[in-house]
Amino acid sequence: MSQATTRDLLKLAARRLFAHRGFDGVSVRDIVDAAGQRNSGSLHYYFGTKEELARELVADGARLIDQRRNSQLDVLERDGGARTLRQVVEILVWPSTGLGGQGGETEASNSEDTYIRFISMLQMSHRQLFLDALEGKWASGYERCLDHIRRMLPEIDPELVNQRLVFMSLFLRAAMSSREAALDGVPSHHFWSAAFTMENVIDTIEGILRPAPSKQTRAALMRHRRQLAGKPRGKRTAGSGQAEYHAH
């Protein structure tokens, strides 16, 4: 068995196990056994540690998604830029599909698709490990999409837009994880394989982003700002700064 094949089998086994059990629920021995390797030291030989293996898995998928998004954004901007919010949302959504076989894995793994679940679990349990794996460079397409969205929502207060971008990210990660799980190992699914389902997911994201804020939200935002204005700068709490985003 070649070095590349052994390495890819370990990555494939680890990603699936991490997606199903979480990072802490999987041992090195579990990965080696699932990859069909007799040598218990094979993971350490190829990756050093379980943490380094996880970092490489994060980077594999993030790089692929980011390249897809940037490629589509380059075309969009070359043609004059986004004319509708939906165009940008589509670039957020579609590159996160069809990830089976990414990362240099064997052709036999093309139906394998656990990346979104893997990073969703990892972000919840080991967020710094996830961020370190991105190396600050595999989310540029995501950030470009956010910039387009902000420009297309000038009538909504920027602080509310930032919150909605977080809501969008949380929804998208949950929806794509559910889709991935439903399609895992099966050719189709009664809900997720319907032709209109993903289009409706995109509709839903537009629905999160686009509506005018209610008077209740506007009033609550004003109260929040008045409260912040009355506090010493060092005592201001979350909500007064830039929102945090969860790229995938």
Rounded radius of gyration (Å): 21 Å
Order of helices and strands: HHHHHHHHHHH
- Provide the CATH topology: Tetracycline Repressor, domain 2
Shape: globular
Provide the CATH architecture: Orthogonal Bundle
The domain count comes to: 1
CATH domain class: Mainly Alpha
Structural class: mainly alpha
Helical fraction: 55-70%
Beta-strand level of the residues, as a percent range? Answer: under 5%
How large is the count of helical segments? Answer: 11
Low-confidence stretches: 103-112
Distance between the termini: 33 Å
DSSP E strands, number: 0
Largest sheet: none
In short:
By secondary structure, the protein is an all-alpha fold. It contains 11 helices and no strands.
Task: Give a description of the structure.
The protein has 248 residues and is an all-alpha fold. It has a single domain, classed as Orthogonal Bundle (Tetracycline Repressor, domain 2). Helices cover 62% and strands 0% of the residues. It has eleven helices and no strands. Helix 5 packs across helix 10. The protein is globular, with a radius of gyration of 21 Å. The protein starts with a helix and ends in a 19-residue tail after the last helix. About 4% of the residues have low confidence.
